[in-house]
Amino acid sequence: MGDKLKVVVWSTGTIGRHAIAGIDAHPRMELVGVWVSNPEKDGKDAGLLADLGRELGVLATTDRDALIALQPDAIVHTAMADDRVFECIQDLIGFVEAGVNVVSSGPVLLQWPEKILPDDLLERIQRAGARTGASLHVNGIDPGYANDLLPLALTSLSQRIDEVRVMEIADYSTYYQPVVMGDMFGFGRPMDFQPLLWQPGILTMAWGSVVRQIAAGLDIVLDEPLVEKVERRAAEVDTPSVSGDVKAGTMGAVRFELIGNVDGIPRVVLEHVTRTAEDQVPEWPQPAEGGGGYRVVITGEPMMQLDLTHHGEHGDHNVSGMITTAQRLVNALPAVVEAKGGLVTALDLPLVTGRGLVSTK
């Protein structure tokens, strides 16, 4: 199996804490450093920050340069990127330029950045990778496994494909991310509030990577621009939420689509149905189980539907959503380290499994 990969985790938030636990549990990995942005976490043990109930002997630091100086094999980057997209991209490129492989949960547009990022920025990533041999891979559960590998693997059963639709259907009331919930989605805000996410072109920037990567996997060329559709609904009653309660009359649910057409006909569609209570807008698509999950619908011959449901051992689907995002990155790390330098997409990787993680007790 060779030496263990030396890994740094970049942030200890809702995803980072699970990445620390995942690396600690992985037989091929050794946690050597943790970066934090909050000075109050500086010097604290990673195991305590990850709520493992024990110390790991690795102290968190706000010193970026000290972590790079460790010359780790890889960084698992889980810092919040939605509200600082281009600053975050510069951070990731800097890691590659320093010769460190990176797997990251964002910015999600890097999953498949063609037609989103300027060519000179993409060329910079590729030049850095060619020079240092380091790779950059952005993934998770959505955007990520639920709408790249999962739907593309399912299409291998198709005789004819008319449309591939990938969906997230979820109640976000237990999802703790106030900036995303309030500022970006607009949940709990007046219906006339115009959050960033619903501005023209932003859905394409955020999820266009999903639609275009599926199209690339199917060898089709989509019409440009992609088509954005958004329907928002007000909450009918006061609704509690961990990211800020949603009052009746304020925005409580949203359904959006990002549509990739070929000659005007929808061929690849991303759809999200996001509620802040399970009983909101019952006529919209419902999850197969519990408060949320992912669905792939392939229209064609044969007709297929695949539902992925999940929940945490000690929490609901929003907890397991963070775990699956972290573990998709952690488990892909060995393959990313072995990959060619530069940007690596899901289409570039071999089969990633949970090798080494089967319980022995």
From TrEMBL:
From the UniProt record, which GO molecular function terms apply?
kinase activity
Q: Cite the entry's keywords alphabetically.
A: Kinase, Transferase
Stretches that traverse the bilayer: none
Q: List the InterPro entries.
A: DAP_DH_C (IPR045760), NAD(P)-bd_dom_sf (IPR036291)
Locate the 2,4-diaminopentanoate dehydrogenase C-terminal domain: which residues? 148-352
The name under which this protein is listed is Diacylglycerol kinase
Q: What is the lineage of its organism?
A: Bacteria, Bacillati, Actinomycetota, Actinomycetes, Propionibacteriales
